[in-house]
């Protein structure tokens, strides 16, 4: 079967330039709050609630009561993330279908973004022993972030044709690393000089968390204004007579039925669920692992994450060049192997060993950008032509809404061992299973089944 490209790549459009800025906007929250600061900060607040007056450096052995269930303070963050992502798995999968039926999808996207940014900003008021407010705001911000990203990804199919999406998507990803890195740099400076500014550590952390929420809200204005004229969907117009809710459910049933016709696409998604779950859990647990298990100060952890943020940009470019030579499928497989090495090295890193911790951060940065970017491009080849929006909605829903088992395992292992080392090494199973499943994906067959042209190097 031969395929002829109908739409040639155009010069960068105004809509595409506006679209990039949402990666810039939300990555500040993802990096500063969700990845670096909120995990150890909420853990500290929870420890103060469970063990008032606990000396610094000692483990709190008293449990919190969450709906009558005893939860170790050190597990609170991971169980909160687990709950958020399970709930997201139910919510996010509807968002793409609902957005297709919304007369103003950009308004819906911005509404989710701004509600999430509001929740992120209100985290400033989490102080003392008020861990309940912190956990609730993490849930709201996480669900709204995922919902906005579902619509954000589907908008890509409306502003870029098949010959532009790799370029547009990659540039947006790069914008995300850059925006997240810049705000993290500013917050690192605030943390480093907080005493000179008359602030204690808790207040400087809260100000940094507030800055991420305001950054997210402020820069969302750019894509909203630049894309607000968009209506409907370009690829597959939908029947709006069924209404938003019932019509969305009908479309979702159709999507899942249709997925059965593409076994290689389904196999890739299953593999992705496992290895992405491992990646997201490593990322989400890194700050608390560095501070609570390895004994580094918050300033050191913040600096290391800043380093990772910019290395990840270079890593994505490096993996892209490797993929051009040996193919994206093999490159992602090798990346999964490197992630396995990451968790083994993390388990073995001695406490207070900054040089080894930096080497581990360098490896994480290199493999982080590459595996994420290439996984999305691989999946795009397995999507049936003309149905990109709904399939990318499914992909985003799975990426953001089903990465819960890793955090659950991490939290449970810590709950029973009170050791983050055993919790981190337990994640090796996700990379082993994900890699094994990905190795069984027959990319050429899947691309042809989807009706797409086969690249010269797969």
TrEMBL record:
<dbReference type="InterPro" id="IPR036259">
    <property type="entry name" value="MFS_trans_sf"/>
</dbReference>
<dbReference type="GO" id="GO:0022857">
    <property type="term" value="F:transmembrane transporter activity"/>
</dbReference>
<keyword id="KW-0813">Transport</keyword>
<keyword id="KW-0812">Transmembrane</keyword>
<keyword id="KW-1133">Transmembrane helix</keyword>
<dbReference type="Pfam" id="PF11700">
    <property type="entry name" value="ATG22"/>
</dbReference>
<feature type="transmembrane region" description="Helical">
    <location>
        <begin position="173"/>
        <end position="193"/>
    </location>
</feature>
<feature type="domain" description="Major facilitator superfamily (MFS) profile">
    <location>
        <begin position="264"/>
        <end position="458"/>
    </location>
</feature>
<dbReference type="InterPro" id="IPR050495">
    <property type="entry name" value="ATG22/LtaA_families"/>
</dbReference>
<keyword id="KW-0472">Membrane</keyword>
<protein>
    <submittedName>
        <fullName>MFS transporter</fullName>
    </submittedName>
</protein>
<feature type="transmembrane region" description="Helical">
    <location>
        <begin position="205"/>
        <end position="227"/>
    </location>
</feature>
<feature type="transmembrane region" description="Helical">
    <location>
        <begin position="133"/>
        <end position="152"/>
    </location>
</feature>
<dbReference type="InterPro" id="IPR020846">
    <property type="entry name" value="MFS_dom"/>
</dbReference>
<feature type="transmembrane region" description="Helical">
    <location>
        <begin position="355"/>
        <end position="374"/>
    </location>
</feature>
<feature type="transmembrane region" description="Helical">
    <location>
        <begin position="108"/>
        <end position="127"/>
    </location>
</feature>
<feature type="transmembrane region" description="Helical">
    <location>
        <begin position="76"/>
        <end position="96"/>
    </location>
</feature>
<dbReference type="InterPro" id="IPR024671">
    <property type="entry name" value="Atg22-like"/>
</dbReference>
<feature type="transmembrane region" description="Helical">
    <location>
        <begin position="301"/>
        <end position="319"/>
    </location>
</feature>
<feature type="transmembrane region" description="Helical">
    <location>
        <begin position="331"/>
        <end position="349"/>
    </location>
</feature>
<feature type="transmembrane region" description="Helical">
    <location>
        <begin position="267"/>
        <end position="289"/>
    </location>
</feature>
<feature type="transmembrane region" description="Helical">
    <location>
        <begin position="420"/>
        <end position="438"/>
    </location>
</feature>
<dbReference type="GO" id="GO:0005886">
    <property type="term" value="C:plasma membrane"/>
</dbReference>
<feature type="transmembrane region" description="Helical">
    <location>
        <begin position="394"/>
        <end position="414"/>
    </location>
</feature>
């Amino acid at each position: 079967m031969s395929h002829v490209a109908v739409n040639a790549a155009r010069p960068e459009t105004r809509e595409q330039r506006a679209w990039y800025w949402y990666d810039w906007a939300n990555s500040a929250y993802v990096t500063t709050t969700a990845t670096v600061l909120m995990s150890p900060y909420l853990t500290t607040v929870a420890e103060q609630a469970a063990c008032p007056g606990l000396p610094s450096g000692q483990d709190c052995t008293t449990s919190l009561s969450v709906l009558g269930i005893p939860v170790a303070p050190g597990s609170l963050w991971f169980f909160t993330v687990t709950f958020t992502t399970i709930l997201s798995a139910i919510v996010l999968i509807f968002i793409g279908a609902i957005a297709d039926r919304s007369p103003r999808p950009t308004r819906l996207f911005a509404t989710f973004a701004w509600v999430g940014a509001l929740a992120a900003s209100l985290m400033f008021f989490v102080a003392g022993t008020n861990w309940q407010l912190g956990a609730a705001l993490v849930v709201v911000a996480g669900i709204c972030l995922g919902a906005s990203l579902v619509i954000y990804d589907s908008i890509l199919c409306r502003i870029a044709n098949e010959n532009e999406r790799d370029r547009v998507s990659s540039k947006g990803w790069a914008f995300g690393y850059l925006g997240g890195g810049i705000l993290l740099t500013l917050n690192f400076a605030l943390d480093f000089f907080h005493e000179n500014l008359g602030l204690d550590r808790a207040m400087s952390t809260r100000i940094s968390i507030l800055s991420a929420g305001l950054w997210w809200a402020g820069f969302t204005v750019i894509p909203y204004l630049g894309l607000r004229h968009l209506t409907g969907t370009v690829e597959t117009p939908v029947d709006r007579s069924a209404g938003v809710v019932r019509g969305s459910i009908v479309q979702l049933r159709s999507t899942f039925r249709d997925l059965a016709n593409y076994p290689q696409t389904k196999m890739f998604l299953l593999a992705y669920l496992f290895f992405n779950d491992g990646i997201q859990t490593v990322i989400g647990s890194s700050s608390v692992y560095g501070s609570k298990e390895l004994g580094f100060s918050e300033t050191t952890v913040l600096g290391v994450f800043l380093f990772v943020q910019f290395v990840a940009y270079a890593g994505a470019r490096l993996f892209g060049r490797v993929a051009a030579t040996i193919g994206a499928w093999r490159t992602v497989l090798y990346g999964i192997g490197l992630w396995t090495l990451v968790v083994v090295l993390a388990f073995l890193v001695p406490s207070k060993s900054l040089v080894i911790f930096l080497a581990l951060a360098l490896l994480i940065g290199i493999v982080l950008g590459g595996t994420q970017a290439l996984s999305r491009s691989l999946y795009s080849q397995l999507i049936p032509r003309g149905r990109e929006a709904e399939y990318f909605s499914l992909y985003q829903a799975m990426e953001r809404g089903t990465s819960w088992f890793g955090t659950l395992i991490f939290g449970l292992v810590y709950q029973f061992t009170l050791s983050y080392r055993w919790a981190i090494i337990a994640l090796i199973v996700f990379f082993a299973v994900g890699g094994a499943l990905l190795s069984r994906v027959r990319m050429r067959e899947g691309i042809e089944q989807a009706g797409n042209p086969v690249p010269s190097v797969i």
